[in-house]
Amino acid sequence: MTIKSRVRRAYRAGTRLDLAGRTVDAAFLAGLLREPGHLDLANARITGALDLTGARIEAPVRLRRCVFERELRLDHAELLSVNLDECALPGLEADGLRVAGDFAGRDMTVGGDIWMLPARIDGTVELDRSVVRGSIHLQQAEVGGGVIIRDATVGKGLRLAGSRVGGNVDLTRSKCGAAADTGAAVNAGGMAVGGGFFSHDLVADGEVNLIGARVAGSITLQRAVLRGREGRHALLLIETQARMLTLRPAPESTGTISLRDARVGRLVDDPVNWPAGCRVELDGLTYERLTRRSEDVDGWTAGQRLDWMARFTTGAALGPYDQLAAALRRDGREQEARQVLVVRERLRHRAKGRLGALWGAVQNVTIGFGYRPGRALLWLLAVVAASTGWFAWSGPLRAVKPDESPTWDPFLYSVDVLVPLVDLGHDRAWDPVGADKAVTLAVMAAGWILATTVVAGAGRAINRGGQ
Fold first, then answer.
1. 105 phi, psi to nearest 5 deg
2. Which element (helix H / strand E) includes 81?
3. Which residues cross the membrane (predicted)?
């Protein structure tokens, strides 16, 4: 019985046929697939180009461990399901492909590109452990299940921009090289994912672009090696939305990570072990909580996170400090939130130049920009004590009107001079000269400085309470 006869009989019976490396003509298979039947072929060498462009096949197509001489063409075909596990082929052209079930290509070897845009796969696209020397094009695709590309190697970039995926996108332990035209290893800008986007231990030798992606579940970049090329970003999460973001790049990661205007519910990162070669943009990032993973033993302190922000963040925006303080408050870490806001005010005043920095230094030392009001009382008591001690030693002062002056009291005189809005009648009753006058002016200046800083701090406190 000829090979064609055996293939035809197995096809019509719907049984599996192992050709043990024998060849079969691609044109013969293409004609056969347009007849009623079920193709389940293994270990075949397919000569010529298997062209199913525009075909409508209402039975599963299984071509496992097959070697294709030419590209497999499925443009605008309508198939029930496709299985190409362990196949070797020069390329796959499947633009506009429609599959009612799953598209599986586990352990495939593809010498060129996989084109599947804009494909519609009602089930799952699974390319685990495959090696694709070119690019995988899944732009604008609609996938009802997930896109599973674990332990795979993609030589020239994975493209998912604008796709709609109902389940998870899983790139765990995969390696992606950069596309020649964009420099991106993974381009998923504008993607919508109904599940999570997982990339544990991903190695990306180029930009990972998730600009504007909407992920209903979590985005996880745990131990991911992110390498920006030629001054490009390593990771773009601009305007990305997700329920949770785990961002823990591997130590060897390099390049800038942008979180500008991203919105996440929970943010899990590791500022203590942040890669030395990575900068991060936080402008406009919003999150509800900063949390740890369940397996984490040690947490981070506000001081450690502030040090991380000072060393690794780009830009001079103050919003990231407000966001951090708000998250700490939600977690009941009020003292650490105040610590963050003090740093924020310090930076804000430094940005105003030398005079602003000087005034900020005064407010910082005296009342901690209003976040440490107890300091004002301590300074007040210290100035009163020093002034009282001086005037007790040097006094009494000369009376302005000897017949009308009150009894000399160095304490009441010091309080009257120090507090601008308090009038005890002592400061106007005595006339200091020489060193006494210098001390009086110094106490008076200290009073105005303390009063001004307290008012400024109270204003900030009122504004915080109204927010």
1. -145, 50
2. none
3. 376-393, 438-462
Q: Cα–chain-centroid distance for residue 414?
A: 56
Secondary structure (3-state) at 142: strand
What are 300-303's contacts with CB under 8 Å, separation 24+?
300/270, 300/271, 300/272, 301/336, 302/328, 302/333, 302/336, 302/337, 302/339, 302/340, 303/339
3-state SS, residue 430: strand
Coil, strand or helix at 21: coil
Among candidate residues 94, 147, 140, the one with its CA nearest the CA of residue 118 = 140
How crowded is residue 177: how many other Cβ atoms within 10 Å of its Cβ? 21
Locate 172 and state its tokens.
């765990």
Instruction: From 360, 387, 377, 368, select the one nearest 457 (Cα to Cα).
Output: 368
Segment 401-418 shows an average pLDDT of: 81
Give me the pLDDT at residue 376, please.
67
Helix (H, G, I), strand (E, B) or coil at 186: strand
As a residue count, the chain comes to: 467
What residue type is assigned to position 376 of the chain? A
Contact of 395 with 408, CB cutoff 8 Å: yes
Which tokens sit at 229?
């090329």
Q: Whole-angstrom Cα distance, residue 397 to residue 215?
A: 76
Model confidence over 18-69: pLDDT tens digits?
999 999 999 999 999 988 889 999 999 999 999 999 999 988 999 999 999 9
Question: Angle 24-27-28 (CA atoms, 0-180°, nearest 5)?
Answer: 60
Beta strands 430-431 and 398-399 are antiparallel
H or E element: which one contains 52?
none
